[in-house]
């Protein structure tokens, strides 16, 4: 790998998947650091209302273009017109179960979307890319803490789309002037402390935190805990839950690292702390100040017992570490849930 030392000045940043859960928080964090933004999203899993909510939080408009990232010509025009210096590529489909039943759609969208973006970035001469990757790229049997050199081997098609996209980006970076960082997220949770932006799943949530909060709010009857017979202290699975605002700050830090980056590099974004499903339940009950109905059911297919990050590479390379706790995340997620009971759909 070549080490490039040229300084990279990043002013304008394009965010793909801009109206999604994580990107909306990244937008707020970037604007706070004085970056100019342009948001791109096809709104397949998000609402245009997010653009107004972000504008409210950043005290000014966020330019937004409704576009599918697979539209290479349209994307090239947006990157050129806004004189974009770096892209943060968050656009993607993320439901593991759906990726098993409709894998082609996942490869088309996540891998095809990344190829289209790389072409557009080449045409518009954009030199820097931050890619939203995932801890699911690691082989499920790898022991935690997971480091960036833990073995890759995703256990489902969603994870494979992330791993394949990383490899494609690596190949392009190795043979061109592109520099890239793959941020491998652990379990993003929580919401902006204002309660104005947060996760707004369409239909029943697949993930633990939004499901738990909807049960707390009385929108769902019962949280099902998938297994209490794992080899963990309380028998439930352990994950590394990272506050979405910490995650967003990690993206800002990644942009600051391009001056010293190798051609491409993978960096874990996690807290380094593991919490069990029961820890999350207790923290959510504290935040919502009520008991949350739950029952233990059988294990969910494909779940590994323990997954948490070794976050030391992020500290070393980005000067970044998570600062918020699971309790902070539950309080902020509950505020968002409470103030926006139907997400963005009917809230003012
Ligand atoms: P999200 O669904 O809220 O946001 C993704 C956004 O991308 C949505 O607004 C969707 O409309 C948009 N999108 C999808 N395909 C597109 C396309 N072809 N063109 C333009 N826009 C498109 O999901 P999120 O939780 O904010 O995740 C953001 C990224 O982070 C995704 O790439 C996801 O795979 C990755 N990631 C998420 C998690 C997690 O648990 N949330 C964990 C690891 C990685
Ligand atoms: N989980 C659960 N009930 C739910 C959703 C999730 O018990 O309704 C458990 C799941 O088995 C896993 C943990 O919560 O151990 C985190 O799951 P999630 O889907 O949020 O994230 P993952 O780590 O699987 O990507």
What is the secondary structure topology, with strand pairs?
Elements lengths: L11 E5 L4 H12 L3 E6 L7 H10 L5 E3 L5 H10 L4 E4 L6 H6 L1 H21 L4 E7 L22 H18 L4 E7 L1 E3 L18 H9 L6 E4 L11 E2 L1 E3 H13 L7 E6 L5 E2 H12 L5 E4 L14 H7 L7 H14 L9
Parallel strand pairs: 1-2, 1-4, 2-3, 4-5, 5-6, 6-11, 7-10, 8-13
Antiparallel strand pairs: 9-12
Bound molecules: nicotinamide-adenine-dinucleotide and uridine-5'-diphosphate.
Task: Describe this protein's structure.
By secondary structure, this protein is an alpha/beta fold. The chain has a single domain, classed as NAD(P)-binding Rossmann-like Domain (Rossmann fold, 3-Layer(aba) Sandwich). It is 38% helix and 16% strand. Helix 1 links the parallel strand 1 and strand 2. The chain is globular. Uridine-5'-diphosphate binds next to helix 7 and strand 8. The site of uridine-5'-diphosphate (UDP) has 14 residues, from helix 7 and strand 8.
CATH architecture designation: 3-Layer(aba) Sandwich
Q: Number of helical segments?
A: 11
| Rg calc | 19 Å
Structural domain count: 1
Secondary structure: number of strands? 13
Which strand order does the major sheet show?
Answer: 3-2-1-4-5-6-11
Which percent range fits the helix content?
Answer: 25-40%
CATH topology: Rossmann fold
The gross shape turns out to be globular
Largest β-sheet summary = 7 strands, parallel
Return the string of H and E elements: EHEHEHEHHEHEEHEEEHEEHEHH
Whole-number average pLDDT? 95
Q: From the helix content, strand content and strand pairing, which structural class follows? A: alpha/beta
Name of the CATH class: Alpha Beta
Bound compounds: nicotinamide-adenine-dinucleotide, uridine-5'-diphosphate
Q: Poorly predicted ranges (pLDDT <50, ≥5 residues)?
A: 1-6
